[in-house]
Structures are given as C-alpha cells and as structure tokens.
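Priority: medium. Attachment 1 of 2:
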C-alpha cells in the first residue's frame, strides 16, 4: 500500500472540462459505498497499475447512491458518503476521486455516451479497472463484458477484478457490512471493511442530561437513513484538529428520559472543552450492550460506570486492523 499523496484531488459533481491532473491515468470505477475489502481490491489494482506505468490513479464514483434515485421510498443506509469515501481513497494512496452526480439525466444515458464523454473525452483514461459486478448506463446495460469490448475497440486496457471473499467463503459486500452494523456486530463489519467503521457529524446541543449524571456528552444527529444498531459503544473521537480521544457512546432514544428522536451521544474520557458546532468523526471499536431502562437514575449511573470501565479497557489495548486503518487517523 502506498503512502498518502499530498496533492490528492477531490471533486464532487464535476463540470467539464476536468482538471488536467486527473487526465491520462488509470481509472477505477464503482459505487464503492463502504470502501470495503472488495472495493479496496479494485482500487489497489488501479494504484499498482498506475505506479508501474508512471500514471495517476483515480477513483470514479457516484453521488448520491443510485438507490436514492431509484428507490426514494426505501432510503439506503449509507456507509461512506462522499467525504468519508474521499478520505479512504486518499489514505489508500490514490491521486484523486471524482463523484459524478447520479441524477435522472445521468442514469438514463447510454453506456456508449458515458464511456465516450467521461472516460475518453473527460479523463483520457489509459486503463479502466472495475469489479466483477459493476453495471452502469440506462437499464444497467453497461457491464464488465461491455467494458472489455469497448476498451479493446478504443485501445484502452480494461481489467475486471474478481469477487473478494472472506474466510467464510462469502462475498465481501456492502450489504453484509450494513447488516452487521444493524445487528450490532461491529467486529464483523470492521473485518469486512478492513478498517473500523466511522462517520462524521456536527456536535449539537442536547438536553444536558448526561452532564447532570456526571457524564457530559457531545451529541450528534445521524441521518434518517442510518440504521446503526441502537445501544452503547466503545469509540474513538477525532476532533477537527486531528486529535484522537477515547470515549463511550450511546445511540438511541434515551428511554430513561424522553424516548425521543435518535441521537448519538459520546462521553469523551478525561476531556473538558467546548465542542458545539465542531465537525467531528466517531470510530466504532466495539458494541457493548443495547439501550436499557432502569428503575432509577442510580441504576443507570452504575451501568454507565461499568460501560466506561469496559470501553477504556477495549480502547487501551486496541491495535489498528490494517495499514489502512492506521493511516486513516495518523495525520
């Protein structure tokens, strides 16, 4: 795995023409929601080919997730929106990432138009790399076989990366990651990802219940489509300045208080600073228990004490899951 490039180019919903530094390289194409080990196989192939040929390695993806357009009544649990996806692409060592605007016009264009307008005219791609299950264009008529045939006709190398499986023999997929997070099986989700799942948010004001109990929290409202399992987590908390802190977090509706809208609340250990309005990241290390309702506040505080001891122990001895996991929070 290569080191992070300082000149990483991150573009969301680009307009033509594209910057020259993104042209003439190796382009990895995919939706890449999750940037899991299967996606990493595609991106690392692109990176290896690019370095061998002295070219740039570019990730080409789509925003929002296509299912947001096709099934608006069933919003998908997003794993890596644009900003998180770009951070991972940068940490992998890619030179840039482009998120195309996935709207009705884009989705209805032919595979030929996408190939010509984006890969030839827009990016002057020298090689294209995609996963075995990548489809694009109107009615998903663009597929790996199309890419191979079109690439051969245009003199562009095309590589299709085979399915990546885990030790169970099952495909590594975004669906499996989502299900693991919905079930509270953080260890499985993180193993499939190859790094610890994280998300970003802005610290907002809450009811200050935690402060009254001796456990002040930094509160975040997660998107409505987030189906993360409600309960208590051992987490790392990364501030905007890059400083990393340990903490214990609760996600849910606060059954001891208002049983209201879901909020992610982080008690940051040994910390006393104003975080309101700051954009922060939370990294999930382990799921401790589901939300519970106690007979009184004394029972709740006793359980919070236990949760804190358990979270501190987990975080004290945690090691990076991979080189990527270490690099994500190294700077």
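Attachment 2 of 2:
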């Amino acid at each position: 795995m290569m080191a992070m490039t300082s000149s990483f180019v991150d573009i969301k919903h680009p307009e033509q023409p594209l910057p020259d530094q993104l042209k003439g390289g190796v382009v990895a194409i995919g939706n890449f929601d999750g940037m899991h080990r299967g996606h990493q196989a595609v991106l690392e192939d692109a990176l290896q080919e690019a370095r061998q040929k002295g070219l740039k390695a570019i990730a080409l993806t789509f925003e929002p997730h296509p299912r947001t357009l096709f099934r608006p009544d069933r919003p998908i649990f997003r794993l890596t929106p644009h900003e998180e996806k770009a951070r991972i692409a940068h940490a992998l060592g890619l030179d840039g990432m482009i998120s195309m605007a996935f709207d009705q016009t884009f989705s209805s264009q032919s595979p030929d138009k996408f190939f010509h307008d984006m890969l030839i005219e827009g990016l002057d791609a020298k090689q294209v790399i995609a996963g075995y299950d990548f489809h694009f264009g109107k009615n998903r008529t663009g597929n790996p076989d199309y890419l191979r045939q079109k690439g051969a006709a245009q003199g562009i190398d095309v590589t299709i990366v085979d399915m990546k499986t885990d030790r169970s023999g099952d495909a590594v997929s975004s669906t499996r990651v989502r299900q693991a997070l919905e079930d509270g099986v953080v260890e499985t989700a993180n193993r499939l990802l190859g790094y610890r799942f994280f998300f970003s948010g802005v610290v907002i004001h809450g009811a200050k219940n935690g402060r009254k109990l001796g456990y002040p929290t930094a509160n975040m409202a997660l998107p409505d489509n987030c189906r993360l399992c409600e309960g208590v987590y051992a987490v790392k908390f990364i501030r905007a300045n890059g400083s990393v802190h340990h903490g214990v977090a609760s996600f849910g509706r606060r059954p001891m208080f208002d049983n209201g809208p879901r909020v992610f609340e982080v008690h940051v250990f040994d910390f006393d600073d104003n975080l309101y309005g700051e954009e922060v990241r939370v990294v999930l290390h382990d799921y401790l228990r589901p939300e519970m309702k106690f007979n009184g506040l004394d029972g709740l505080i006793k359980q919070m004490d236990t949760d804190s001891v358990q979270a501190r122990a987990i975080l004290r001895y945690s090691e990076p899951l991979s080189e990527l996991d270490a690099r994500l929070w190294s700077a």
